[in-house]
């Protein structure tokens, strides 16, 4: 399954990154995956700044999978910045994290997360969860009008 737009995976843990990419493969998710390893890298990718200066920002991700516990800028601040900018405010953001903190869940939803998923420890459950994410966000979900995404 693929809709042509990339998936932005914001993940600082190399093991979780590898597991997520492997789960995408097992679920036949063919969208290109862009990986940002911290909050600054995610912001730079989305807005074409820093290390992504000159990136064609008319091509926005189909969905952002966002860890919360990130170096430099944490996931909640990344989410805040995504929702504060009209170019990115409507991109679906799925928080994919190990945090079970009630305040993290509440704050993520308050800031506009579309979904909050705790990473399962068991790989088979994780493959299933990523498959469900792919089916929903890349196949079933109707995105906001294309002009709102800037493409």
TrEMBL record:
Keywords: Phosphoprotein. Pfam families: Response_reg. It comes from the Bacteria. CDD domains: REC_Rcp-like (cd17557). One of its GO terms (biological process) is phosphorelay signal transduction system. Residues 6-134 form the Response regulatory domain. This is Two-component system response regulator. The modification 4-aspartylphosphate is found at residue 67.
